[in-house]
Automatic annotation (TrEMBL), chain A:
Organism this protein belongs to: Sarcophilus harrisii
Modification comment: Phosphorylated. Phosphorylation is enhanced upon serum stimulation.
Record text about domains: The RRM domain mediates interaction with EIF3J.
Designated name of the protein: Eukaryotic translation initiation factor 3 subunit B
SUPFAM superfamilies registered for this protein in UniProt: RNA-binding domain, RBD, Tricorn protease domain 2
Record-stated family: Belongs to the eIF-3 subunit B family.
GO biological process: formation of cytoplasmic translation initiation complex; IRES-dependent viral translational initiation; regulation of translational initiation; viral translational termination-reinitiation
Automatic annotation (TrEMBL), chain B:
Full protein name: Eukaryotic translation initiation factor 3 subunit I
Role played: Component of the eukaryotic translation initiation factor 3 (eIF-3) complex, which is required for several steps in the initiation of protein synthesis. The eIF-3 complex associates with the 40S ribosome and facilitates the recruitment of eIF-1, eIF-1A, eIF-2:GTP:methionyl-tRNAi and eIF-5 to form the 43S pre-initiation complex (43S PIC). The eIF-3 complex stimulates mRNA recruitment to the 43S PIC and scanning of the mRNA for AUG recognition.
WD repeats: 25-66, 162-203, 259-289
Example GO biological process: formation of cytoplasmic translation initiation complex
Gene transcribed to yield this protein: EIF3I
Quaternary structure (record): Component of the eukaryotic translation initiation factor 3 (eIF-3) complex, which is composed of 13 subunits: EIF3A, EIF3B, EIF3C, EIF3D, EIF3E, EIF3F, EIF3G, EIF3H, EIF3I, EIF3J, EIF3K, EIF3L and EIF3M. The eIF-3 complex appears to include 3 stable modules: module A is composed of EIF3A, EIF3B, EIF3G and EIF3I; module B is composed of EIF3F, EIF3H, and EIF3M; and module C is composed of EIF3C, EIF3D, EIF3E, EIF3K and EIF3L. EIF3C of module C binds EIF3B of module A and EIF3H of module B, thereby linking the three modules. EIF3J is a labile subunit that binds to the eIF-3 complex via EIF3B.
HAMAP family named in the record: eIF3i
């Protein structure tokens, strides 16, 4: 029988029978969905038929010495009281497999019991036998390995006393214990060693196959063969029939279980035609589903882990913010309270992270990166809250709702187990789904909708939208969008914007699509497009599409801003034409203004535009001769920092856009980063060791551009403000607060004065004690000095040199004339 | 009067009043690393990368003695009485770092080039700076790894060892009365120690390697000179090289003034013995002498 062959074929080694079956048994809490039931029904039918043969095979392999009949008989005897057909079926199937048993499908329940019994027994047998043999094998291999181990041991020994002995001794020292497992020594080779497998693993069941009469059976077989022989050589097939027609499900057997697995992976869900979508399962899977008990067990209640108040930092009386700082080239990470005077350290740890850190979008968690995965920290003491094991993780992304974490690792992605990208549930730490990924060039690969309900990914001509918590494709299918170049979610609603470049006669277009309905709410056609960039305003009120075009008959690129007003009916679009090349564009976060840097260095200008309610877009102000390449809006809007980072030497301009005044122009030489605090009160500029090796520091400024602190940190790398969750205050409450601002500011001013006078008092006090201590020390030193006076006099032949003029009498006056030119240099920083 | 060494082969003497050159001591064939004069300025001692240490007559510039060594002479100095000289040699060309002691009163030592004592120093961290302690009883040496050792000048044993700096100690200067000294280190700090106990007293922080530090003879002030390392200078703008002499209050550890002027790192700073001026020598090839203006003498911290 071909089953015996199976065992001998080396490819079969990839699937070890025991773990597979154990895994199947250990899966009781799997929900018994309709598909499972269906499968169980199907299994009940096929078990006696195909199994008979298989059992025999398994037994012969296992050398259990039992006659196949004996095995098969057992269930039959047990089932003697049951249906007569089912009693007869096992022997009949063993003698002539391939004969249909039409009655059985009608009594699946009784049958399934029988099948279960039979299978379990058989499995036990197989396991026993297999286990024994493997043990033997192990022993053998172990013996061999032991010898190798001795060799390895002997080597260094020889080196030690090589001078005395030339002969190499391979024998172990007495009492030598071999503690190296064979997996450790030759795991790579052992992996490929032939392993036994019973043929069941190579069998698949295909459902939803068209039901045909004998006239078309041959044709069906051809079709099936064509589809399924792609995954490997089919050694056996069986088409059960009923009333002259096939029953709509078939069995196929491959040469090796690997092929069967391949078929299940790739042919499941195959659409033959409109009515027939194949469902492909491993034959052994039916086992798995059948062991599920009919009773539903209430899942055990997990003990509640009290993590404390994860948002404690928001309750701080002074409303200070926190930030994380990585320094000493990444060896140390600190968390600070931001304070006007000096940062207050909360936590400092060595080697907290191996590369960098990230805050979750609402600030609840701090993520650290390690070779083995990601760790999340939080709460008052920054305890570890969760771990996600992902070898070689490089990039992460949080869902906006902080429920899910996406991690990316370039290592370890295998064909059949996608784990380049893994989506995790943050609360439970469970892996939700893995994805393949070739390149991380455009991180994040998965973009989240603002509420974390959907996430989407773009591949060639396709936009795949997934939904949470199932992590499955929305409506089970991706969107085919030929040529799609870029997409982006609205931060204010479940709307996706994407654009497609020109294709022959079809113009380029920007599409806005509502989800999950997939309704296109706006399509904008564009001509002669080179490139588009999508910029959403933070609330999703506006979308700006920056369009680079090469109009016909002209040379060079012209840029337009197409402004979509999302909150109005039919989404009207207005166009702003720009005459110069664009360096940067940024929306005001909570407003309707945007800033544009344009021109060519060194003639760079910044322009501020305002989108009015009637749709008119007005240029408010333009400043020319700017040294800037990046725009940083305050998270609250209104204020903006224009920064000339890196190559522009760290020039900074602080602008108030309500009346468009330059509040301050400053410089943080070689600054590489600008970070607004989440409240928009402070800005930090920093020179990161990652981009520049000297003067690594971060400076704290007020939003008006007044320098408050210069914090030099050795090999400072990164500062990140801890984000705050969105405010709980209603619009009216905010309005009220703004109205009463005067009243509040009085209180705050008083507080500031108090703390300032306290600080200066403290400083003076500190200086005083320092001075006193120092005087005390000096007095002691002086006393010692005076004691040694005689010794000094002795050493210098009785000349007192303690004071410059201590021996004026000996001086000889000598007059020398000099020509002196004097240059007076005012002292810098003198207080 | 002061001496200037410029990592060149000649030592110059200048008038500190107007910068007129008084004379030179010529003879060395390698960069001169160190110069010292005895207390009554009769003799001058120089150490050079030409593997020699030479003794000169101060006034005439005549070479009085030549002591050949196996490797470059990094530091040298007269003891308090001017009778014993000490110099340290680099770990170089397979030779260890040594501190050698000669007694000038015994000419045979110089003639035979046999020091009365030679202290080998630990192999991995050579001496980068050294001065005599009070009364000539010991020397205080700063090492490449930031360690400070006090060696007895009689027995050669290590009397005290401390490690307060994390990187090379570039310079050590004592106070006028020699009861305390200030170190300048590559770890961006200068520190004040007690000469006898080597107890750490104060720390002065900057954001650049400190090449030299000096104590004011009249006020509680310290001046620090340093800057970007010479090899990194080209990669940064001169604006941020921070080649400034920086003044700190000795007790408060607070900076109160800076003097610009050099366009290369400052290698050496020194106060005039009267405390009314100071000089700084820079990698840029200039030695600058600055007189303090009246505000300096009036300035006081609020305390």
């Amino acid at each position: 029988m071909q089953d015996a062959e199976n065992v001998a074929v080396p490819e079969a080694a990839e699937q070890r029978p025991e773990p597979e079956q154990q895994a199947a048994e250990e899966e009781p809490e799997r929900p018994a969905g309709p598909r499972v039931q269906e499968a169980a029904a199907a299994a009940s039918v096929l078990v006696p038929e195909e199994k008979g043969g298989k059992v025999a095979a398994a037994v012969t392999v296992a050398k259990s010495g039992l006659e196949p009949e004996a095995l098969v008989k057992t269930p039959a005897e047990e089932k003697a009281s049951g249906e007569p057909t089912s009693v007869e079926s096992p022997p009949s199937s063993s003698s002539s497999p391939g004969e249909p048993q039409p009655e059985k499908i009608l009594e699946p329940k009784a049958e399934s019991l029988a099948a279960k019994e039979e299978k379990r027994e058989e499995k036990e047998k197989a396991e026993d036998g297999g286990g024994k043999e493997e043990e033997e094998e192990k022993e053998e291999a172990g013996g061999e390995k032991k010898d190798q181990g001795k060799e390895g041991e002997a080597e260094p020994k020889r080196l030690e006393n090589g001078n005395e002995e030339d002969e190499i001794s391979f024998s172990d020292p007495e009492g030598f214990v071999d503690d190296i497992s064979e997996e450790e020594l030759l795991g790579d080779i052992l992996k490929d060693r032939p392993q036994e497998a019973d043929g069941i693993d190579s069998v698949i069941v295909v459902d939803n196959v068209p039901q045909v009469g004998p006239d078309r059976l041959e044709k069906l077989k051809n079709v099936i063969h064509k589809i399924f022989s792609k995954f490997g050589k089919i050694t056996n097939d069986y088409y059960p029939e009923e009333d002259g027609k096939t029953k709509g499900y078939i069995f196929l057997e491959y040469v090796s279980p690997a092929h069967a697995l391949d078929a299940v992976k790739n042919a499941d869900g195959y659409k033959l035609d409109k009515q027939h979508t194949f469902r492909v399962n491993l034959f052994t899977d039916f086992d798995k589903y059948m062991t599920i008990s009919d009773e539903w067990d209430i899942p055990e209640k997990q003990p509640f882990k009290d993590l404390g108040n994860l948002r404690y930092w928001l309750e701080e009386a002074e409303c200070r913010d926190q930030y994380s700082v990585i320094f000493e080239s990444g060896d140390r990470t600190s968390i600070f309270w931001n304070d006007v005077k000096d940062p207050v350290s909360i936590e400092e740890r060595a080697r907290w992270t191996e590369t960098y850190v990230r805050w979750s979008p609402k600030g609840t968690y701090l993520a650290t990166f390690h070779q083995r995965g990601i760790a999340l920290w939080g709460g008052e003491k920054f305890k570890q809250i969760q771990r996600f094991s992902h070898q070689g993780v490089q990039l992460i992304d949080f869902s906006p709702c902080e429920r899910y974490l996406v991690t990316f690792s370039p290592l370890m992605d295998t064909q059949d187990d996608p784990q380049a990208i893994i989506i995790w549930d943050i609360l439970t730490g469970q892996k939700k789904r893995g994805f393949h990924c070739e390149s991380s060039a455009h991180w994040p690969i998965f973009k989240w909708s603002h509420d974390g309900k959907f996430f989407a990914r773009m591949t060639m001509d396709t936009l795949s939208i997934y939904e949470t918590p199932s992590m499955g494709l929305l409506d089970k299918k991706s969107l085919k969008i030929p040529g799609i170049k870029d997409f982006s979610w609205s931060p204010g609603g479940n709307i996706i914007a994407f654009w497609v470049p020109e294709d022959k006669d079809i113009p380029a277009r920007v599409t806005l699509m509502q989800l999950p309905t997939r309704q296109e709410i706006r399509v904008r056609n564009l001509f002669n497009v080179v490139d588009c960039k999508l910029h959403w305003q933070k609330n999703g009120d506006y979308l700006c599409v920056k369009v680079d075009r090469t109009p016909k008959g002209t040379q060079g690129v012209v840029t337009n801003f197409e402004i979509f007003r999302m909150r109005e009916k039919q989404v009207p679009v207005d166009v702003v034409e720009m005459k110069e090349s664009i360096i940067a564009f940024a929306w005001e976060p909570n407003g309707s203004k945007f800033a544009v840097l344009h021109g060519e260095a060194p003639r760079i200008s910044v322009s501020f535009y305002h989108v009015k309610n009637n749709g008119k877009i007005e240029l408010i102000k333009m400043f020319d001769k700017q040294q800037a390449n990046t725009i940083f809006w305050s998270p609250q809007g209104q204020f903006v920092v224009l920064a000339g980072l890196r190559s522009m030497n760290g020039a900074l301009a602080f602008v108030d856009t309500s009346d468009c005044t330059m509040m301050n122009i400053a410089e943080h030489y070689m600054a590489s980063d600008v970070e607004w605090d989440p409240t928009g009160r402070y800005v930090v500029t920093s020179v990161s060791w990652w981009s520049h090796k000297v003067d690594n520091a971060y400076w704290l400024w007020t939003f008006q551009g007044r320098l408050l602190q210069k914090n030099n940190k050795d090999r400072f790398c990164q500062l990140l403000w801890r984000p705050r969750p969105p405010t709980l205050l209603s619009q009216d409450q905010i309005k009220q607060i703004k109205k009463d601002l005067k009243r509040y500011s009085k209180i705050f001013e008083q507080k500031d004065r108090l703390s300032q006078s306290k600080a200066s008092k403290e400083l003076v006090e500190r200086r005083r004690t320092m001075m006193e201590d120092f005087r005390k020390y000096r007095k002691m030193a002086q006393e010692l000095y005076m004691e040694q006076k005689n010794e000094r006099l002795e050493l210098r032949g009785g000349v007192d040199t303690d004071e410059l003029d201590s021996n004026v009498d000996d001086w000889e006056e000598e007059t020398i004339e000099f020509f002196v030119t004097e240059e007076i240099i005012p002292l810098g920083n003198q207080e | 009067m002061f001496w200037g060494t410029r990592k060149k082969q000649i030592v110059n003497v200048w008038y500190s009043v107007n910068g007129e050159r008084l004379g030179t001591y010529t003879g060395h064939t390698g960069a001169v690393w160190c110069v010292d004069a005895d207390w009554d300025t009769k003799h001058v001692l120089t150490g050079s990368a030409d593997n020699s240490c030479r003794l000169w007559d101060c006034e005439t510039g005549k070479q009085l003695a030549l002591l050949k060594t196996n490797s470059a002479v990094r530091t040298c100095g007269f003891d308090f009485g001017g009778n014993i000289i000490m110099f340290s040699t680099d770990k170089q060309m397979g030779y260890q770092c040594f501190v050698s002691f000669f007694d000038l009163r015994d000419p045979s030592q110089i003639d035979s080039n046999e020091p009365y004592m030679k202290i080998p120093c630990n192999a991995d961290a050579k001496i980068t700076s050294a001065v005599w302690g009070p009364l000539g009883e010991c020397i205080i040496a700063g090492h490449e790894n930031g360690e400070l050792n006090q060696y007895s000048a009689k027995s050669g044993e290590v009397m005290v060892n401390v490690k307060e700096h994390s990187r090379q100690i570039n310079d050590i200067q004592t106070s006028r009365d020699m009861t305390m000294f200030v170190t300048a280190s590559k770890d961006n700090t200068a520190k004040l120690f007690d000469s006898t106990t080597l107890e750490h007293q104060k720390t002065f922080r900057t954001e650049r390697p400190v090449n030299s530090a000096a104590l004011s003879p009249i006020y509680d002030h310290v001046v620090l000179g340093g800057g970007q390392e010479a090899m990194d200078v080209t990669t940064t703008s001169t604006r941020i090289g921070k080649f400034e002499a920086r003044f700190f209050h000795i007790a408060f550890e607070e900076e109160f003034g800076r003097v610009k002027g050099h366009f290369g790192p400052i290698n050496s700073v020194a106060f005039h013995p009267d405390g009314k001026s100071y000089s700084s020598g820079g990698e840029d090839g200039y030695v600058r002498i600055h007189y303090f203006d009246p505000q300096y003498f009036e300035f006081e911290f609020e305390a």
